[in-house]
Design brief:
There is one protein chain. The chain is mainly alpha-helical. It has a single domain, classed as Ammonium transporter AmtB like domains (Ammonium transporter fold, Orthogonal Bundle). β1 and β2 form a beta hairpin.
């Protein structure tokens, strides 16, 4: 097929790519505000580090491993488009929409970057920065790329994969590939690395709630590129995804705040920001597959369930520092599974990008087939992500180590790892020897009487 450039669609995807890339610095603010002041720079650097590592890997072998010729239903040929220097516009993932190949490469790169960065919140305050960078490189290669290929690149979790006897799985913008994947990886990594010192015994409150609110705002802004851009064209389906992203997120914030108010007596700014992210996560896989009422339903359920789920770490004893499990894993599951109830793709209302055979959800006359399909894909994705992430995390722990030293954790990773402090009162200024000396001297006194492993 001869490629025909569509400048309107191309301009939109370039814009959407920039919006999605902005989400990772937005995540840095969101996560950075939630940690204690002594480790805020380290937390933000984990997101920025992911941007650097994944950008390089993606253009070398990541894109090719995702969208190259299928190998066993698990991964694409990583050498087919190696370096993306020989890929032609006729081979573009978005060729049907008239979008050049390199624009498609750029758009998909931003998804890989944000997925890795999301994981960092689960192991905040205690991870060696060098080990995180190694984990980033290995995980995006061995987990993200195969998962994206299985779902979007023609692999086992796609239209002709393991659910071919049921229906076509629906993951419009990454509920499985991004959020379930990152949420499971965050849980596994948190279990392997262990709890923060003092977890459950000492207060570990967010140090800068305005940062958290700013981060949530940037995430919501960028997410319109994330979801509406996944249509690959500037058309009515993109408009449906945009509107659903707005309303699902709004209602998720409201139901999170209501849950907080009933449970705790307060509707908090942290709850509002977290509700925004929960709604964004949940609507991601369903953004163009449901109508307005479906989006409202998914957002409402996500706001309540994610608000309740963030407390599970205290009940079960795993230290997911910034609630990656409660928001991204639970929110991703909510959005992915509820497609089986709310999908409305059979009447032409939401466009025609789904392959023939995609069924409406249970509430729209489609029976349980789509619901079963969504559940199967979600379970397989969780098992794959958990198994491979565990191997990677255990291998790194056994070789170069995952966890920062006790002294670095107690005194703050900013000074110990980066030689900087975010605030003058915590470190005496950038590269200040006096600040480092003072914190080092104070560390033994700050050590808990009973060590928490």
């Amino acid at each position: 097929m001869e490629f025909s450039l569509d400048t309107g669609n191309t301009a939109w995807i370039l814009t959407a790519s920039a919006l999605v890339l902005l989400m990772t610095p937005g995540l840095a603010f969101f996560y950075g505000g939630m940690v204690r002041g002594k480790s805020v720079l380290n937390m933000m650097m984990m997101s920025f580090g992911a941007m650097g590592v994944v950008s390089v890997i993606w253009v070398l072998w990541g894109y090719s491993g995702t969208f190259g010729s299928d190998i066993g239903g698990i991964i694409g040929n990583p050498l087919e488009y190696f370096g993306v220097s020989t890929i032609t516009d006729e081979q573009s993932l978005m060729a049907a929409a008239g979008v050049p190949a390199l624009v498609a490469v750029a758009f998909q790169a931003t998804f890989a970057i944000i997925t890795v960065a999301l994981i960092s919140g689960a192991v905040a305050d205690r991870t060696k920065f060098g080990s995180w960078m190694v984990f980033t490189a290995v995980w995006v290669t061995l987990v993200y790329v195969p998962m994206a290929h299985m779902v979007w690149g023609g692999g086992l979790l796609g239209a002709d994969g393991i659910t071919s006897g049921l229906s076509t799985p629906i993951d419009f913008a990454g509920g499985t590939v991004v959020h379930i994947n990152a949420g499971v990886a965050g849980l596994v990594l948190a279990l392997v690395i262990g709890k923060r010192r003092g977890f459950g015994k000492e207060p570990m409150r967010p140090h800068n709630l305005p940062f958290v609110m700013l981060g949530a705002a940037l995430l919501w802004f960028g997410w319109f590129g994330f979801n509406a851009g996944s249509e690959f064209a500037a058309d009515g389906t993109a408009g449906r995804a945009w509107v659903n992203t707005l309303v699902a997120t709004g209602v998720a914030m409201l139901t999170w705040l209501l849950t907080e108010k009933v449970r705790d007596g307060h509707a908090t700014s942290l709850g509002a920001a977290s509700g925004v992210v929960a709604g964004l996560v949940a609507i991601t896989p369903a953004a163009a597959a449901v109508d307005t009422f479906g989006a409202l339903g998914i957002g409402a359920v996500a706001g309540v369930l994610c608000a309740l789920a963030v407390g599970l770490k205290y009940r079960f004893g795993y230290d997911d520092s910034l609630d990656v499990v409660g928001v991204h894993l639970v929110g991703g599951l909510v959005g992915t599974v509820l497609i089986g109830l709310f999908a409305n793709v059979g009447d032409g209302v939401n466009g025609t990008w789904y392959p023939d055979g995609a069924l409406n959800g249970l509430f729209y006359g489609g029976g349980v087939t789509q619901l079963a399909t969504q559940v199967v894909v979600a379970v397989v994705a969780m098992v794959f992500s958990a198994a491979v992430t565990a191997v990677i995390a255990i291998a790194i722990k056994a070789t170069i180590g995952l966890r920062a030293s006790d002294e670095a954790e107690l005194g703050g990773l900013d000074l110990a790892v980066h030689g900087e402090a975010a605030y003058e009162t915590l470190g005496g200024g950038r590269f200040s020897g006096e600040g480092r000396t003072a914190l080092t001297a104070a560390a033994p006194a700050a050590r808990p009487t009973t060590e928490v492993k």
